[in-house]
Amino acid sequence: MNTFDKKELSSRFWRYLSSSILITLSGALGVIVDSIIVGNLIGSDGVSAINLNSTVIQLLMTISLIIASGGGMLAGYAIGRKDFDNARYIFTQSTLGSIIVGVIFAVIGIFFSNQLASILCQNDALYTMVHDYLRVVLFGAPAYMLMWGISTMIIVDGSPRLASVAIIIDNIANLILDVVFIKFFDMGIAGSSLATVVGHLIAVAIMMLHFRNKNRVLHLSFKGGKLSQWRDIISQGAPLAIASICLTLLLFTSNKMVLAAVGREGIFVFSVCMNLLQVYNFFLAGTCRSLQTLGAVLIGERNSDGIRFVFGKSFKFITIAMIITCVYVWIFPSSIATLFGADNADIIKECNYALRIFAISFVPFCYIYFIMIIFKLLSFNRMSLFISLILSLTVIPVISLMAHYAAEYIWYSYLIAYIIEIIAIVTVYKAGRMDIRARMASL
Question: Residue 441 pLDDT > 60, yes or no?
Fold first, then answer.
């Protein structure tokens, strides 16, 4: 058995966790703050337009997960083994990959924003807002990719505090600029999107200070690796990326189904519920980022006791966070609806009903996602891929059936689908005779 300093590892865990949550907060808060301010300054159609654009933002997140999360895990393994040249090479490849992807999306924004907006939204009343927000997101794609990628890497390299400061300033800038661009510069919904991009650029500039410290491991270098490591980076990031791809497809499908089944008011209610998902995601994705980063280093060190300790603290934190969030939503759903600009009694009533259902629905989603990360860290690759595939794809046929045959119960689609997924995961796990405890003990 391995020995470790429980107090030191606990302190390390909380440093990583707080930074990872703030990084996740930056991606999610950009959408939530935009939605709140747009809902109050522009109206409910603006909130719906932002939600309809969430598919593209989720796609950017998907590619970032492949590059940054996959590269971050490999860099963590290498740092744990003291193979610093290889860690630097992985960092270099990941950073260049992020830049290239961001530029490709920016080019798409120049030439194809109209066509993409038409795919996202067929409602004439919402199209212009969808397009105006989308165009800025695409132009700003390099900022999204670099912010997520560099923040992941500097946390691996021991600068979670700097990442935290950068993300806090990012979100403050986003909040202030949202109001400035929309209210004072009269830029409409495009100003909201621009505020997010500028905030990310500020964060990237701050995080670059990490590389002025010569004692840090990571910097740009092409030594110590080989081009074929891209396959390993993609493989490490694959489960998260596949889950994110499925979520992208789910968001796209759900938006279309809800808009067709319950109309403009329904898509606003659904948009508010998806913003609630972002709140759960603060804790879930932040914890999983921390778990991946710290877990990879501990696995590189072959510290099984440390891994077990970090798993336990991560599980406890997610559970407490979900309970608090769920209880708040059940007691104060109206406050959430009005926060996003709902001022009609019927819409508020429907929001209250839907929010309470989704508050429960997202609990099993969080646990499913968390266990997927554990399977990946412990190299149960087929199981983690299986979970990533069914995580969102199961919802699509359920919500499709509900939309066609029981539209009045459409808000239950996610809960029903996640219950089905849990049954499937338990069945496959038992059939495969997998043993998580034995795998941890063998490290």
Answer: yes
